[in-house]
Fold this sequence. Notes:
Largest sheet: 7 strands, mixed
Order of helices and strands: EEEEEEEEEEE
Structural class: mainly beta
Radius of gyration: 13 Å
Helix content: under 10%
Amino acid sequence: VQLQASGGGLVQPGGSLRLSCAASRSVHSIVAMGWYRQAPGKQRELVASVTDSGELNYGDSVKGRFTISGDDAKSTVNLQMNNLIPEDTAVYYCSAELYKVGLRFGQGTQVTVSS
C-alpha cells in the first residue's frame, strides 16, 4: 500500500490545520485508516483512526479538538486539527491497517505549533 499525505506546517497556538491522506496500490483490504504522531524523544502514539465500518477512535490528548473523517470508497482519511497547542508538535504519520497484514505507515509530515 502507498500512503500519500498532505497538509501540515507551522501554525500558532490556537490555530487549525488539516491533514489528508490517500491510500493506493493496496492488494489487501484496508480495515482502518488513521494518524499517528511522534514527538522528539517520545514514542509514536495514536492520534485518531476510523474503521471501514465507521468506528472512530481518538487519543486522549486530542479528544474534543481533532476530528477524523474517512471515505472508504476513495480510501482517504482527513484529520481536522483545531485549537492546536505546542504539545501537538510532532511528525504525523498516516496509517492503514491491512486485513491479515497489520499496520502500515506513510512518510511523515511535520506539524509545528509555535508562536
